[in-house]
Amino acid sequence: MSTTTDVKPILMLVEDDEGLAKQLRWALADRYDVHCAIDRAGAVALARRVEPAVVVLDLGLPPDPNGASEGLAVLTDLLAFKPWLKIIVSSGNAERIHALEAVRLGAYDIYPKPVDIDTLRLIVERASHLHALEDENRRLAASKDRRPMLDVLAESPKMLDVCRMIERVAPSDVNVLLTGESGTGKEVLARALHGASTRVDGPFVPINVAAIPETLLESELFGHEKGSFTGAHKTTLGKIEQADGGTLFLDEIGDMPHALQVKLLRFLQERVIERIGGRSQIAVDVRVVAATNRNLAEAIAEGAFREDLYYRLDEVGIHIPPLRERPGDATLLARHFLSRYAQEMKRPARGFTSDALRAIAAYEWPGNVRELENRVKRALVLADGSHITGTDLQLEEGSFPTLRMAREEAEYEAVSKALCVADNNVSAAAKLLGVSRPTLYDLMRSLKLRD
């Protein structure tokens, strides 16, 4: 939502060259509330007073204008009391070793000397945007009045569609089937669905069907009466009864034994259960959310999963895309996990180096969100510096796709699909794509779709 009065982000310049400081201030004042300091003491005092989002720091400050000791000391002082501050340091070719040391200590980025105003503007804008996003995430995480979907961190179009679907489905009582690869966050989304429903004040009861031996699973789900079998010393409520008035989450439902599928189907049809060893029918008011990483259509074809149970569970189906198909989400989640575990473990890590962020964005994440969380947690324990590197994550930087590569891939997919739909009729495919026949022929040649 836009406001009539836009508050400018606060930018602090630490520069002892008065002429250069005036030039930078003039160039950046249209977008930022700019404050200036000329030395270490002034910079620390000013930062505490105005609380900037971004600092542009010249490492060559007096009394060491030809070195970097004073500038690095300013960097360390500022990050000590404001770890999330984005500090951009200046670097000439002869000073590059000092700039790299600054990045190791926690600087956000480097800008080259002599100063190119357009380049510096881009770096500052990017740093300011990132600071605003992180600040908003911290504010929401600290909020006591939390909304359920705030626990789902996403910015990719596919995951935002999933979130919108959950928000639409939550107020009703239909059963929901969540599908997706292992580690994509199905339980997080199930809890979000429960939190957004009218059952939010009732219990959320999860059970992992695959983790419980078949001999115990029936008792876990349906409960048992005292004396119903050896070791049944008291009457015990099953997960279904425990979820009365709330939501039952059946994780890995595709691994449920066939015999128990019949009993679960009967419960979904009649909404009553019988405990093991019991004779009375017990009515239970519960919403069922199930999840699986299996292809249930194949399981049905193989006779491993009942088709009638599938349709009872899949009143609304929601597919959760793997992390590799969610551009931007990996870095967003990585920053969240780093912030969370740094607080829990009282570790000093303040962020990721640029090579780590590129590696996170380029990696395929076969283990999805669970793998990402584990790698960040392990890196936080083992890292030596204040920032997590790609080496700490045990990831190679990899090759990040350029805009040209992404455009060519999108064009290849669109043209291939149009030709397939049009049965290789170029005129019809061109009409589908909204381009002329000559343009489509040129595209096909450049994409090597036809000789």
Automatic annotation (TrEMBL):
What name does UniProt use for this protein?
Response regulatory protein
Sorted keywords for this record are: Activator, ATP-binding, DNA-binding, Nucleotide-binding, Phosphoprotein, Transcription, Transcription regulation, Two-component regulatory system
GO biological process per UniProt: phosphorelay signal transduction system; regulation of DNA-templated transcription
The record's listing under PANTHER family reads: ALGINATE BIOSYNTHESIS TRANSCRIPTIONAL REGULATORY PROTEIN ALGB (PTHR32071:SF113), TRANSCRIPTIONAL REGULATORY PROTEIN (PTHR32071)
- Residue ranges of domain Sigma-54 factor interaction in the record: 152-381
Residue positions where 4-aspartylphosphate is found in the record: D58
Recorded hits in InterPro entries, A to Z, give:
AAA+_ATPase (IPR003593), AAA_lid_NorR (IPR058031), CheY-like_superfamily (IPR011006), Homeodomain-like_sf (IPR009057), HTH_Fis (IPR002197), P-loop_NTPase (IPR027417), PEP-CTERM_resp_reg (IPR014264), Sig_transdc_resp-reg_receiver (IPR001789)
Please give the superkingdom of this protein's source.
Answer: Bacteria
- Alphabetical list of CDD domains matching this protein: AAA
Classification of source organism: Bacteria, Pseudomonadati, Pseudomonadota, Alphaproteobacteria, Rhodospirillales
SUPFAM superfamilies for this protein = CheY-like, Homeodomain-like, P-loop containing nucleoside triphosphate hydrolases
Chain ranges of the Response regulatory domain = 10-128
GO MF annotation list: ATP binding; sequence-specific DNA binding
